[in-house]
């Protein structure tokens, strides 16, 4: 298949180089208290969290994530952000692993109250993903 000639598509780096590169994002999803995140929540890319106490968010099963990412191959990555909107200083969110996940630097990561954290997940093998806080 030939690349578009400019009349019906866009080639990165072609055309007006001074234009901003724009993306698209669906409306953020929400989470509140302790829960297992769904693959859809993670794949949305932006989770607005409003815990009413300290909360544990468990990652979805890797098998559920891979069911929605059937074309992912080793080295494929996704990114998502969790924004902790809690104003109480003790309402931190701890991100816990689930089957198929490994977290760089330990078994869990904390998103402190009134802060956010960006994560990069990378497929490392069949049924296995590595999570990095970036």
Which terms summarize this structure?
134 residues, six-stranded mixed β-sheet, mainly beta, four-stranded mixed β-sheet, 37% strand, 10 strands
Shape: globular
Low-confidence stretches: 1-6
What is the number of helices?
A: 2
- The N- and C-terminal alpha carbons lie at a distance of 37 Å
What structural class do helix, strand and pairing data support? mainly beta
Strand portion? 35-45%
**Mean pLDDT metric:** 89
Number of domains as seen in the coordinates: 1
Order of helices and strands: EEHEEHEEEEEE
Any chance you could write out the topology, listing elements then pairs?
Elements: E1 29-31, E2 35-36, H1 39-44, E3 46-49, E4 55-58, H2 62-68, E5 77-84, E6 93-96, E7 101-103, E8 108-111, E9 115-125, E10 128-133
Parallel strand pairs: 1-3, 2-4, 3-5, 4-6, 7-10
Antiparallel strand pairs: 5-9, 6-8, 9-10
Task: Give a description of the structure.
This protein has one domain (29-133). It is mainly beta. Strand 9 (115-125) and strand 10 form a beta hairpin. The longest helix is centred in the middle third of the chain and has 7 residues, at 62-68. It has a 6-stranded mixed sheet with strand order 1-3-5-9-10-7. A 4-stranded mixed sheet has the order 2-4-6-8, with no helix packed on it. It is built from 2 helices and 10 strands, in the order ββαββαββββββ.
């Amino acid at each position: 298949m030939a690349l578009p000639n400019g009349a019906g598509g866009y080639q990165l780096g072609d055309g007006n180089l001074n234009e901003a590169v724009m993306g698209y994002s669906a409306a953020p999803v929400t989470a509140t208290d302790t829960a297992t995140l769904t693959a859809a929540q993670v794949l949305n890319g932006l989770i607005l969290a409003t815990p009413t106490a300290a909360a544990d968010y468990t990652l979805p099963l890797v098998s559920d994530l891979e069911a929605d990412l059937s074309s992912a191959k080793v080295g494929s990555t996704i990114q998502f952000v969790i924004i902790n909107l809690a104003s109480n200083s003790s309402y931190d969110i701890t991100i816990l692993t689930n089957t198929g996940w490994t977290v760089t630097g330990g078994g869990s990561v904390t998103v402190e109250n009134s802060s956010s954290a960006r994560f990069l997940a990378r497929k490392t093998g069949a049924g296995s993903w590595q999570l990095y806080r970036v």
